[in-house]
Design brief:
This protein is an alpha/beta fold. The chain has helices at residues 41-49, 76-90, 102-113, 137-145, 150-153, 159-164, 169-177, 206-219, 222-229, 231-237, 266-271, 274-278, 295-298, 300-311, and strands at 5-11, 14-21, 26-30, 53-57, 95-100, 118-124, 250-255, 282-288.
Amino acid sequence: MNKIQHSTIPTNGINIHVASIGSGPAVLFLHGFPELWYSWRHQLLFLASKGFRAIAPDLRGFGDSDVLPSPSSYTPHHIVGDLIGLLDHLGIDQVFLVGHDWGAMMAWYFCLFRPDRVKALVNLSVHYTPRNPSISPLAGVRLLLGDNFYFCKFQEPGVAEADFGSVDTATMMKKFLTMRDPSPPIIPNGFKTLATPETLPPWLTEEDIDYFASKFGKTGFTGGFNYYRATDLSWELTGPWTGAQIKVPTKFIVGDLDMVYHLPGAKEYIHGGGFKKKVPLLEEVVVIEGAAHFINQEKAYDISSLIYDFIKKF
């Protein structure tokens, strides 16, 4: 099988770095924070071996893609615009869409804005949360989890950057990627206080850490933080989609140790019927035991197989 190929594609006024491999029906992978296309390295090779064209960009603000300084440049309108332009540039009409973390959030928005471009969706870790017209997301998070919740700590420019810059980039990546505490992270003293693992878990190598660190060492983390900082602006701009459903065939996968799965009310919503009402073509929810948040890396073969088993039906 050919090696993963890398290219830079102009789209939506910026340049996006793209990793891709294989030929056949296209699968578009969207990463989260603090991650890169590299988070999908296992899935790219697996899906390509099964006859698919696997494509994973560095989303704007990450890796070798353009990093824009203003949080107002990171709404779902911008991100989905980048992806539509990317597909148009590649001559792809429809894709299978796969997202994780912020990539999952953007995948939900992609399906909301342009369901005509999506054959089916597999989303990891972050379930679809419908827009609440009566309270902004940030105000809701502060009310529910307080000012020391990490989402809130990321809001003020410079503060989170200083926190993440308090240790070397490789150490911060080790701290972040190996978090396994399922309780929502209430972090009054910053992420630098997280324990650094003495040894890496089997699914994560020093080479992996070096790759992440080399990229974030150049760009910093501001691009990623800007997704959090654009949350309320995104809420304002998505008013026209209040009450809208996600109407593409969907599979949702989450680890039972994922902190998002343990947010107040999340399990009840996911399993109690609320999720299905908002995503009526939701075909399956898979909960993987012993898996935490970075599930596509931690349980790479399982996730690759679950994605393949779903999309091969279409």
